[in-house]
């Protein structure tokens, strides 16, 4: 089981480096099924923040800090709501909820992308940015999948892909760290039950994924990787829902 966790971390880190996002989309549903909804999401929060921190040095010059702040301020409110839900909802319903949240986020972001593929002009008001930041923060804390909400904003605002991917790195560092701490506080200090050597292996695998992603970024289009990530995310979300329903049935 732990080998599957490590494999998922490598794949997620590769996607994060090439496409700018994808760690949570790929890894969260897998770890939720393998380790449980609370521990799985907390580990993804920790790894996602660390992965973005390692990538940030490579894309620092392209970060748009104004947009980072515009998304992050309402994101804190969303994180507070998501952390409360993640720490108070029973495991099986939470697992189903995480899968549903992921599916909704994926479908919504794709519908927005198709509907606005040739918009007459950018939609970039403070209200749109605030709604995206809040939704992303809530989903990051509850399910470690804050990417779809900010992707929808990027499409609506016609945000340059290179600058969007760069700005997501400090954004995910902040949301991942804050989500992790908020859930630890909300649960009275709960921490994922991994041994020190397991944490070390997880972070080593993340480094391997980033290095491989660096090589792939020169050869594979980011859009190709993003489509692959979305396909894996759909499958993982469906698996989380089925797994949660099976746990509910067994409990009944």
- Gyration radius, rounded: 17 Å
Number of domains: 1
Helix content: over 70%
Distance between the termini: 26 Å
As a percent range, the share of strand residues is under 5%
Low-confidence stretches: none
What's the order of the H and E elements?
HHHHHHHHHH
Mind describing the biggest β-sheet? none
> How many alpha or pi helices?
10
- Whole-number mean pLDDT: 82
Structural class assignment: mainly alpha
How many strands? 0
Overall geometric form: globular
Secondary-structure topology with pairs:
Blueprint lengths: L1 H18 L3 H13 L1 H23 L5 H24 L2 H25 L10 H18 L3 H11 L3 H26 L9 H22 L4 H30 L1
Helix pairs in contact: 1-2, 1-3, 1-9, 1-10, 2-3, 2-5, 2-10, 3-6, 3-8, 3-9, 4-6, 4-8, 5-7, 5-10, 6-7, 6-8
Give a written overview of the molecule.
The structure is a single chain. This protein is mainly alpha-helical and 252 residues long. The chain has one domain (2-251). It is 83% helix and 0% strand. The two termini are 26 Å apart.
List key phrases describing it:
single chain, 252 residues, mainly alpha, 83% helix, globular
């Amino acid at each position: 089981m732990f080998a599957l966790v490590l494999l998922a971390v490598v794949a997620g880190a590769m996607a994060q480096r090439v496409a700018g996002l994808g760690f949570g989309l790929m890894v969260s549903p897998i770890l939720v099924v393998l380790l449980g909804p609370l521990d799985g999401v907390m580990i993804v929060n920790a790894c996602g923040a660390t992965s973005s921190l390692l990538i940030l040095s490579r894309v620092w010059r392209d970060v748009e800090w104004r947009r980072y702040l515009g998304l992050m301020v309402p994101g804190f409110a969303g994180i507070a709501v998501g952390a409360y839900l993640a720490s108070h909802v029973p495991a099986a319903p939470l697992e189903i909820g995480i899968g549903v949240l992921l599916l909704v986020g994926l479908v919504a972001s794709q519908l927005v992308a198709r509907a606005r593929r040739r918009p007459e002009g950018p939609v970039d008001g403070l209200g749109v940015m605030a709604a995206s930041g809040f939704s992303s923060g809530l989903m990051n804390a509850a399910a470690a999948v804050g990417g779809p909400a900010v992707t929808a904003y990027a499409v609506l605002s016609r945000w340059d892909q290179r600058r969007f991917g760069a700005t997501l790195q400090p954004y995910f560092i902040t949301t991942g760290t804050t989500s992790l701490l908020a859930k630890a506080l909300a649960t009275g200090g709960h921490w994922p039950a991994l041994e020190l050597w397991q944490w070390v292996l997880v972070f080593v695998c993340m480094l391997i994924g980033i290095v491989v992603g660096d090589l792939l970024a020169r050869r594979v289009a980011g859009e190709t990787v993003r489509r692959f990530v979305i396909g894996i995310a759909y499958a993982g979300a469906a698996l989380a829902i089925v797994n949660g329903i099976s746990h509910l049935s067994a409990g009944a």
